[in-house]
Amino acid sequence: MTPAPETLLDLHRRMLRIRLFEEEAGRLSEAGRIPGALHLYVGEEAVAAGVAAHLGPGDQVTSTHRGHGHLVAVGGDFRRMFAELFGRATGYCRGKGGSMHIADMDLGMLGANGIVGGGPPIAVGAAFSNKYRKTQNVTACFFGDGASNEGSFHEAANMAGLYRLPLIFVCENNGFGEFTRQDRHQAIRDIADRAAGYGFPGVVVDGMDVIAVYEAAGEAIARARRGEGPTLLECKTYRFYDHVGVRGMGVVYRSDDEVRAWRERDPITLLERRLAELGILDAAGAAAVRDQVQAEVREAVAFAESSPFPDPSALTEDVYAS
Amino acid sequence: MTTATAQRQLPVVMAINEALRQLMQEDPNVFLAGEDVALYGSVFGFSRGLLDEFGPERVVDTPISEAALVGLGVGAAATGLRPIIDIMFMDFMGVAMDQIVNQAAKMRYMFGGKARLPLTIHTMAGAGLNLAAQHSQSLEAWFCHVPGLKVVMASGPYEAKGLIIAAVHDDSPVIVVNNKALLGLAGHVPEEMYEIPLGQAAVVRPGTNFTIIATGRMVQESLAAAEKLLEHGIDAEVIDPRSLVPLDTATLVESVRKTHRALVVHEAVRFGGFGAEIAAQLQELAFDYLDAPVGRVGAPFSPVPFSPALEAHYVPNADRIASEVLRLLGRAG
Ligand SMILES: Cc1ncc(C[n+]2csc(CCOP(=O)(O)OP(=O)(O)O)c2C)c(N)n1
């Protein structure tokens, strides 16, 4: 059954917001205007959007080094996000975290994470807290195919299964851990299979089809809210840009043809085609949303770039709670 | 051709590469394992070409699994191989801490001397590249505190090659720390295999009236500081311990006997840092020769910030080192 038109438009908007934020960040990084390392999410938008559409106030997300998309999907503020990427005092982390540590506690986004596998144990803690406090809230734990090899993932999955925590593990299987293809870093094909070892269901879904992600995530989250425990949702997806930054440098680890083939299944194009078929949004309508989001991006970048850098006195602030 | 032009120059990244190649050519029991070290040649590029030359059994891409990766090294070393285990960023050693601290460091001792652990763990430390708090740390003091581990830090290409060769030849676990901000730094590197003996400091700049003891990247900053100090009539001696465990205290004491003053400089957080150990040792071993307390320069007591505006104030530099020397001498810095 196709979700309601307003749901489809919401998914479309969430994905476009991620895409346009990321493409601008990529341009700024290439132009040397953003310091540090940038891990782009472009291509994987359907995963964050499809899951986040089910989350509301009080729910949490744990994220990865590729975390902008997760924050945008749960409603992150472009201005504070760009300001953080630029290292400004007005940024989400007051310039201390940057791209890899961007977070919004008010939105329940417990941080992008520089440590692969750092998120799952924290998600267990958040889910434990929700159960303890009897909130009915859920925690969505995003992680990659590469991260699923860390002990921390397995330890977290075992605990989540044992305590039947209100948690969904969302594996963003983009086929690579950095530059290593999945078949060279694990002997299995479906990471969803790992759930069986911990006593909860594992589900594989097409991560380029936002409707499929939305529906599968909806079931898993409803199950978690009902107190029936975790689900591992594996979304097969692909990143269109390099592991870090925009264009790959040096050693070639995947072909242009492979990237092109995946780009033909661009999750935004797929949804726009569907929306047009259903008569919900035509090309002109989609362009209008794009223009609107693009204007928001431009305004946010201007805000960020005109924001002050943090004062050196901030260096040793916030090491402890005062 | 002058000797200067005859001297072959290599950047740190190529010095490491050459050392690994020669080590693997020399001994079939030496292998390299780590995340993206084979097909991709490491994210820092130091293992490029090794897969082609030695094949996938000796240059091994591993899953992202640091605990198992170090454990792979411990078990392989205990059974006769000479593993070189690469932990991409020093920060990630947190994930493998049990294997390093409770297993690798203790096996020989706990087994009454019946185990030999020729394990080398290579990693990259250091800030300055706007990579924020989880990719920029200098954690060497953690490992210096654990009996059973040896710890070395390279300050340039010559040291990078000589230290890793000594580490791999050593029969105990050695942690080899390179600094990611130095990877492009070029300098003279002999073509042949050579070792920098563990526990032998280098006087990298002889001087007469002040001793600066610096580790890793701070050796370069201290050399620059020494140039600035000349303008103030101060001829500073710069010493690079190169190996923190074992530590060559004799060379440090000898220098202090001559200059009567010392400053220890490291990139790691100053509080609880390795500089405290050196300062305490000098105080114990050379008290009568000191005209002032031993000074210390290090990072502030905070995680490494992302913003360039903050990071610039975080990592010690030549100016800060020079002004600390002047302060210790009672002169306006
Ligand atoms: C503990 C740890 N080990 C290694 C790294 C280096 N690293 C950063 S991203 C990455 C690949 C992660 O792959 P995956 O989990 O599949 O996520 P993806 O990048 O594909 O989104 C690696 C190895 C790290 N940041 N942390």
UniProtKB/TrEMBL annotation, chain A:
InterPro entries noted in UniProt = DH_E1, PDH_E1_Alpha_Subunit, THDP-binding
- List the keywords (alphabetical): Oxidoreductase, Pyruvate, Thiamine pyrophosphate
One annotated GO molecular function: pyruvate dehydrogenase (acetyl-transferring) activity
- All residue ranges annotated as the Dehydrogenase E1 component domain in the record: 13-312
Named cofactor requirement(s): thiamine diphosphate
Q: Lipid biosynthesis: is it a keyword of this entry? A: no
Q: Which GO terms describe its biological process?
A: pyruvate decarboxylation to acetyl-CoA
Protein's UniProt keywords contain Oxidoreductase: yes
* Protein name per the record: Pyruvate dehydrogenase E1 component alpha subunit
**Which species is this record about?**
Tepidiforma thermophila (strain KCTC 52669 / CGMCC 1.13589 / G233)
From TrEMBL, chain B:
Q: Which cofactor does it need?
A: thiamine diphosphate
Keyword flag Mitochondrion: no
Named from the GO MF annotations, one term is:
oxidoreductase activity
Looking up SUPFAM superfamilies in the UniProt record yields:
Thiamin diphosphate-binding fold (THDP-binding), TK C-terminal domain-like
Keywords from UniProt, A to Z, are: Oxidoreductase, Pyruvate, Thiamine pyrophosphate
Annotated Pfam families: Transket_pyr, Transketolase_C
State whether keyword Nucleus applies: no
- Mind telling me which SMART domains this protein's record contains? Transket_pyr (SM00861)
Q: Using the record's annotation, list all stretches that form the Transketolase-like pyrimidine-binding domain.
A: 10-185
Q: Which NCBIfam families match?
A: PRK09212.1 (NF006667)
Protein's recorded name: Pyruvate dehydrogenase E1 component beta subunit
